[in-house]
Amino acid sequence: MKIILAKYIGFCKGVNRCISLVEQEIKNGNKVYALGELLHNQQEMKRLESLGVKVINDIKELKSVFKNISLIIRTHGIEKEVYQQIVSKNGIKVVDGTCPIVKKNQVIVEKYSKEGYNVIIFGDIEHPEIRALISYISNNVKKYVVSSLEDIKKLDISYDKPIIVISQTTKPVDEYKKICDVLKRKFKNVKIFNTICKETILREQEIKDLSKKVHKVIVIGGKNSANTKKLISIAKKYNNEVFAISCEEEVKNLKINGYETIAIFSGASTPRWLIQKIVKKIETKV
Q1: What are the structural domains, with CATH classification, of the chain?
Q2: pTM
Q3: CB 48 within 8 A of CB 20
Q4: Which positions are annotated as active-site residues?
Q5: Quick one: DSSP state of residue 213?
Q6: Distance between CA atoms of 29 and 49, rounded to whole angstroms?
Q7: How far apart are CA 267 and CA 197, in angstroms?
Q8: What is the spatial distance between Cα 154 and Cα 16, in angstroms, rounded to a whole number?
Q9: pLDDT over 70 for what percent of the chain?
């Protein structure tokens, strides 16, 4: 049996940057708190917690002013109002782990909504990246989150009103293009931003290409990771043998006997150390 590891595997640049910031704060001897899960991978979060990182879900959990406390902002970003509350507190060092691409999108919607542009976001309304993004939009304009072509029918915006269109950074590029094409026909003044992460696009293309050529596909990633779910969905279009794994223990449920070639992919929040453990476990089953 031949195992093929994807070229684009492990952390994306944004997640890698955030984890590096966390590890540097730990190295500096600071008490490190994370406002929400830093990334959608339970195994990596457990590792960080074992190093001393404490996860809080509300800044009220920091009941008093501390010295040498570093508060890490997750890769998906946080709501503007929450960010402003944090930076105003004394004794807390704010370490912004927001992905630079996500940060850029926040700047875009804030700028154009202040100029009177209505905002249409292609994304999942419950995703933390989108919840944070919405908070940067001016209250003087209309804002909508669409997840499908069907949602476009519900838009209550006049034909000639200016609109910007932006996407969640990890959404499928083909679906975003379809959304944009319909919006360009529906409205007169539409400004479209290509906000999907390039690395995400490369991972999509790679899993499309490789899934056609192998006998089985394995995607490693967190169960609540949107980009991992997307890769699984894409792989299933080209291969009937697609298996999702979130941890080393799940390898025991994997059937690999009789498969000549297996391709292994991962979500953008999956650490390489976990991938290596899982691959080693798979090899022992052969």
Answers
A1: 2-10+198-285 (3.40.1010.20), 13-97 (3.40.50.11270), 101-192 (3.40.1010.20)
A2: 0.90
A3: no
A4: 129
A5: T
A6: 15
A7: 13
A8: 38
A9: 98
